[in-house]
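Revision sheet: structure tokens.
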Amino acid sequence: MPEIILKNITKKFGKALAVDNLNLVIRDREFVTLLGPSGCGKTTTLRMIAGLETPTEGEIFIDGSCVFSSETGIDISPDKRNVGFLFQNYALWPHMTVYKNVAFGLENMKWDKGRIENRVRELLEMLRIEEFSGRYPSELSGGQQQRVAIARTLATGPKILFMDEPLSNLDAKLRMEMRTELKRLHVETDSTFVYVTHDQLEAMTLSTKICLLKDGLLQQFDSPLEVYHNPSNYIVGYFVGSPNINVLEVSGNNINLDEIKLSHRELEFLFVPTSSSISIEEGQTLLLGIRPEDISITDDGEVEAAIYSTLPSGMETIVKLDMNGLILTCVVFGSVDFAMGEKVRISFHAAHNVLFDKKSERNLAVGKLM
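Predicted:
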């Protein structure tokens, strides 16, 4: 079954380095999201795997066969890699009906009429757009057009489906609906999905694995929850999560082999590593990452803070807290709100706080605050 292997892939545009020595293994039937800020190399990586962009160096293997090698000169064309590509702008033929758009690739492959009809009907039913088969793209909503584009891409039965920010043109409600459909589709088609997005919420909700890139360099390749709770470095910790992780610059001192005293202004924490034992230099400057859901507003909280702002949404309220000039973010679940300037007491908890080295920004340990 198809497995994608990238070995030492580098891509340069002139003097600009878009992808820097990327090594990656995408297993069969995985839903891998290439995530990162604009210009990080995620779309370039996708296009190189698909054959739409030529790497400067390295090798690419799909299903055990080499489809690109800078050393031997192998460069298999996109149409021979047995992959489907879903573009951001749908790219539907405006003069063709939904049925004809989906059938187009099959007709080019010289399928007989009965087989084409069965395949198109199967896909339209799978994507719940069978009632639109006689309509033209201009008569469909954005979400419906996207479903047609997916059906057309799947028609020829590719075992690997590439998607480059396919939901970015949809409104928030449609994006949520299409995420649900894509996740269901991944299971039903038994295919490998490789997906590009800058939206970390999409990556978290859809993926079996996230490949986070920055400046062409791989930062972390792991399951969504591992990336969230155990980020490999500060870049990953800050990029993944909405609202963003709170980061406090702290001074650290070893108390014993498994406890570190952290100090920030008048705050003091006892940090107990749960991922590994670490030793730090006396007074070493560290970065303590605390997720917003791990700060709670309670009557018996250890520290006082003032409400800086609130963003209630019904299900939860995102609260900005002012603690003597230090602005922290927390999430309060339920239909609650607070008055600006109101004094509250807060507590820090949970076992997924992260300690980063300030100089290298690498993850030193995940731990709990005592």
